[in-house]
């Protein structure tokens, strides 16, 4: 199982000191968090993409490329890549480029973006959100898998004889997760392609998350990618830890009370009860995180949100120390002990490369005995 | 026939409020009308005031608390709805509107609704038809033709004038109960197949 952190990239005033980082300081802080995540032994660093203040990360591959140069193990991912307002051609090229620079330590999470005004800035309309996600991703897949693409759709100019450059590293496209909080169409999309499905699992009660994941698992099986419990599930989660539970609550409360999105709303206690937010001791975080498995089944990736709402970098780095030293080692062991053998790990570049080589070898040996399944899609893994 | 459930949503602020008073009279009249036709019924009365904080939190976080979720489900699953708002600044109150803002916009589709409003003066009586009725039209509910507005004087010297309007509205609501509410498709049970999404 993979453990990591995901950053939204908000610039928010620290409510306890009145300090607001500059954009530059926040960008550098995100880099420091990513480097620290590798240092403490986490597997994934993912960052958001936004085109409106108070968020800074508009250009994820610039930042992830910079991080790639200073790391060697950690997987760099997104949370999320805007499949609606980005040109799929540019996504194909940017992330193939990043794959080469990062030696394959790259995957992506597709998201639609829920900020209405952003769409027209990129020539789109939020009412087409689902249709854009469907069409753009279908094109993106082809751009990564076919050297020369002729294509025509509703939302971008047609392509004739187009080759996205560079080609994906080892001709293995990055693994893709689809993130959605409440749109069944996106769970369906992830299931159809046999891609991963990620639920941010932060703002909503567990019942909502469960509904989405159960749909994804059921449809993953329906589309013939494996059994429902072999589907590739990722979850978010939000934690704040101190040695003593009461200290964690006392320190985090002002950040919670003033946080973007839910600040000035429910109490910390209400929100902790209703959502996966956990504020307390490392042991409490371990127990809560393990409980996700009971709700959602064995899953492959757990990302924590630890760096928003104005929390100072020093505090965030302390959180990473606690995750790396006290929480993740225990979770790794516990989850591994519980996971049945037939449940796969999340695909990585290495595992996808092996699978692709095996598929190619099989084709050479068995051609033409292997008859393609009567489906419009090639296998994903 | 099965027991009918009538949900009552009343948004008065004081205790007792004239909105609650009107809501109780309307629900009693509806229960009488139903029992007159041999139909048993149960009334679930919701004081919006009791959920004011949860409503605000729902608007801020995007999801209802467990307690509010139950209330919303009560309204959604009821056979018919009685709503009463005080008149604030020539319209329904903000708190009343918040309740219906938080409710799923398909929750009331096809549901018979009896519209009620209260106010300090009878000069506001068209609030029923100029504010409440469009709201419930948008929600695809079926507001019955007679709404009931009660001003201060309706609780005193004009009380006799209020009674026939309540009876009329109650009988219209009960008549509308026979309307079949459309069943809603559940996108989690029956998702749109991806091939349809690709080709749409």
UniProtKB/TrEMBL annotation, chain A:
Keywords: Monooxygenase, Oxidoreductase
Membrane spanning stretches: none
Positions of the Luciferase-like domain: 1-295
GO cellular component: cytosol
GO molecular function list: monooxygenase activity; oxidoreductase activity, acting on paired donors, with incorporation or reduction of molecular oxygen
Keyword Oxidoreductase: yes
InterPro entries: Bact_Lucif_Oxidored (IPR050766), LLM_FMN-dep_put (IPR023934), Luciferase-like_dom (IPR011251), Luciferase-like_sf (IPR036661)
Name this polypeptide is given: FMN-dependent luciferase-like monooxygenase
From TrEMBL, chain B:
Coiled-coil region: none
Record keywords, A-Z: Flavoprotein, FMN, Oxidoreductase
Domain of life: Bacteria
Domain NADPH-dependent FMN reductase-like, residue spans: 6-155
A Pfam family assignment: FMN_red
Record GO terms (molecular function): oxidoreductase activity
Annotated transmembrane regions: none
Record protein name field: FMN reductase
């Amino acid at each position: 199982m993979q453990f990591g952190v995901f950053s939204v990239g908000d610039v928010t005033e620290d409510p306890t000191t009145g300090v607001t980082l500059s954009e530059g300081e926040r960008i550098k802080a995100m880099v420091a968090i990513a480097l620290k995540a590798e240092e403490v032994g986490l597997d994934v660093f993912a960052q958001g993409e936004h085109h409106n203040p108070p968020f800074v990360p508009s250009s994820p591959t610039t930042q992830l490329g910079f991080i790639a140069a200073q790391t060697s193990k950690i997987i760099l991912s997104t949370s999320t890549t805007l499949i609606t307002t980005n040109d799929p051609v540019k996504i194909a090229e940017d992330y193939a480029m990043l794959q080469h620079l990062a030696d394959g330590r790259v995957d992506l999470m597709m998201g639609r973006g829920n900020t209405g005004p952003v769409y027209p800035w990129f020539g789109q309309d939020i009412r087409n959100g689902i249709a854009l996600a469907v069409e753009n991703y279908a094109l993106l897949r082809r751009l990564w898998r076919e050297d020369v693409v002729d294509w025509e759709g509703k939302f971008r100019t047609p392509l004739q004889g187009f080759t996205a450059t560079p080609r994906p590293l080892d001709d293995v496209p990055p693994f893709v997760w689809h993130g959605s909080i409440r749109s069944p169409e996106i769970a369906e999309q992830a299931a159809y392609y046999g891609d991963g499905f990620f639920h941010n699992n932060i703002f909503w009660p567990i019942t909502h998350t469960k509904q989405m994941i159960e749909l994804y698992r059921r449809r993953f099986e329906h589309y013939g990618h494996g059994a429902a419990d072999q589907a590739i599930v990722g979850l978010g989660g939000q934690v704040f830890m101190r040695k003593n539970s009461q200290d964690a609550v006392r320190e985090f409360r002002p950040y919670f009370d003033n946080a973007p999105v839910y600040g000035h709303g429910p109490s910390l206690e209400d929100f902790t009860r209703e959502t996966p937010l956990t504020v307390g001791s490392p042991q409490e975080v371990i127990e809560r995180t393990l409980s996700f498995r009971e709700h959602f089944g064995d899953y492959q990736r757990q990302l924590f949100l630890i760096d928003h709402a104005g929390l100072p970098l020093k505090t965030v780095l302390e959180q990473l120390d606690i995750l790396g030293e006290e929480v993740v080692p225990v979770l790794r062991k516990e989850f591994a002990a519980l996971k049945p053998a037939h449940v796969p790990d999340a695909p990585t570049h290495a595992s996808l490369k092996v699978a692709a080589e095996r598929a190619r070898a099989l084709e050479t040996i068995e051609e033409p005995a292997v008859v393609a399944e009567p489906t419009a899609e090639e296998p994903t893994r | 026939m099965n027991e009918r459930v009538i949900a009552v949503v009343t948004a008065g602020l004081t205790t007792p409020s004239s909105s609650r008073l009107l809501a109780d009279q309307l629900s009693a009249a509806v229960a009488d009308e139903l029992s007159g036709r041999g139909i048993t019924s149960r009334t679930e009365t919701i004081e919006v005031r009791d959920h004011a904080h949860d409503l605000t939190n729902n608007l801020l976080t995007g999801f209802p608390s467990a307690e509010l979720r139950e209330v919303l489900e009560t309204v959604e699953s009821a056979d018919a709805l009685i709503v009463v708002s005080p008149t604030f600044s020539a319209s329904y109150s903000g708190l009343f509107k918040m309740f219906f803002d938080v409710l799923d916009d398909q929750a009331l589709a096809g549901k018979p609704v009896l519209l009620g409003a209260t106010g300090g003066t009878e000069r506001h009586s068209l609030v029923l038809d100029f504010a409440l009725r469009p709201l419930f039209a948008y929600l695809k509910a079926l507001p019955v033709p007679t709404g009931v507005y009660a001003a201060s004087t309706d609780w005193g010297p004009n009380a006799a004038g209020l009674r026939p309007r309540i009876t009329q509205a109650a009988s219209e609501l009960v008549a509308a109960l026979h309307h079949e509410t459309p069943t809603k498709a559940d996108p989690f049970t029956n998702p749109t197949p991806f091939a349809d999404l690709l080709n749409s």
